[in-house]
Design a protein that fits this description.
Strand content: 5-15%
Structural class: alpha+beta
Keywords: Ribonucleoprotein, Ribosomal protein
GO cellular component, one term: large ribosomal subunit
Oligomer: single chain
Radius of gyration: 24 Å
Distance between the termini: 64 Å
GO molecular function: structural constituent of ribosome
Shape: elongated
Family: Belongs to the bacterial ribosomal protein bL32 family.
Strand order of the largest sheet: 1-2
Number of strands: 4
Pfam families: Ribosomal_L32p
Length: 74
């Protein structure tokens, strides 16, 4: 016969209480005042710690070209 309860409900619950996800910290970008995740590049302006890390305009132009090419192909 197999043991049905190896751990009681309290012990299982106490273990599972540590499995919850933590809330990510959200802050405001000092340059464009958009909401951003802490320690990440701002998705709106592409800056991190006052320096431009990602060229946002270049990315948007590339996306527009890709969308235009896809719409012409159809």
């Amino acid at each position: 016969m197999v043991n049905h309860m190896r751990h009681n409900r309290s012990r299982v619950g106490m273990t599972r209480s540590h499995h919850a996800l933590k809330v990510q910290g959200i802050s405001v970008c000092p340059d464009c005042k958009a909401k951003k995740i802490n320690h990440k590049v701002c998705t709106n302006c592409g800056k991190y710690n006052g320096r431009i890390v990602v060229d946002v305009m270049k990315k948007t132009i590339k996306k527009e070209k890709k969308l235009k090419a896809n719409s012409e192909a159809k």
